Amino acid sequence: MRKLKAETKGGKSMKKTVRNIIIFLVITALVGTFSPMGMKQSAAQITTPEETVYQYISALNNHNWNEVVSLLTGDEQSAVKGFIANPENEGQDILGVLSAQIVEIKEMPSDAARFATTVDSYRSTYGDVHVFYAGINYTVENESEFYLNGVNYNLIVVVPENGSWRIVQFSMAPIDTFVKWGYGFNSPSENAALEVLKQREEGRIVNYQGKLLGTNIATEEQLNEEKGEQ
Q: Is 164 in contact with 122 (CB distance < 8 Å)?
């Protein structure tokens, strides 16, 4: 998935944008790691992989960061704990999420998501992989290329670790590809998300009301730099 460049005005806006990107990467750029015990054992039957996704979103909605952390795989827990413990982040909501609720979710064949996630690596590490495509209705503090007010679509990967189901990846979903391959929901909210995606492909970052949040259109200077021109 290509990175988007949002235009900002002034140092304060740039600082906020950089912080949002860092927070997004801390929470969503999750990478599988080896667990020393029970790595390939079946997860405890207390919950199912799908119930784990619901628990995670419920914890986000309730701002229960301890539970959010507990539902991630080992090394990711350490990364998020470090962010929360940083005095500069005291009293701040992770991601600026004010509320979150799943409105539609389906489990996909894990092999169908190979292009969007490292399924084979996760399977080699954890022995079992469950991939979910979910529409989640967010209310956020500040809309960005990562989160909009309304239904956002995420790709969520759940694996067994030490007898529990845990989330190893939570990222933006490639909506257009999933729809093209017949894995879409064909819902009004998904169709709206596709329209927003089309705008982004043309360089315009907009919300569901059509408000321009930024652009990723290269300037003449950037184009010249790519060509090696001064």
A: no
Q: What is the DSSP letter of 96?
A: G
Please list, in sequence order, all residues whose beta carbon lies within 8 angstroms of the beta carbon of residue 214, skipping any fewer than 6 positions away.
Answer: 4, 5, 6, 7, 8, 145, 205
Structural domains in the chain, CATH included, are 10-174 (3.10.450.50)
Structure token digits, residue 210: 């059509």
What are the CA-CA distances from residue 42 to residues 119, 129, 132 (Å)?
Answer: 17, 11, 18
* CA–CA gap between residue 4 and residue 204 (Å, rounded): 10
Which segments in the chain show pLDDT lower than 70?
Answer: 1-46, 75, 83-84, 88-95, 217-230
pLDDT in tens, 179-211: 999 999 999 999 999 999 999 888 899 989 999
8 A C-beta contact, residue 137 and residue 100: yes
**What secondary structure does DSSP assign to 118-151, as a single string?**
-HHHHHHHHS--EEEEEEEEEEESS--SS--SEE
- pTM for the whole structure: 0.73
Contact 196, 145 (CB under 8 A): no
Instruction: Count Cβ atoms within 10 A of the Cβ of residue 135 and give its class: 0-12 exposed, 13-18 middle, 19 or more buried.
Output: buried
Between CA 126 and CA 40 the distance in angstroms is 5
Residues near 189 by Cβ (< 8 Å), separated by ≥ 6? 103, 104, 135, 137, 150, 151
Sheet holding 97-108, edge to edge: 97-108, 130-140, 150-161, 164-172
State the amino acid at position 70 in one-letter form. S
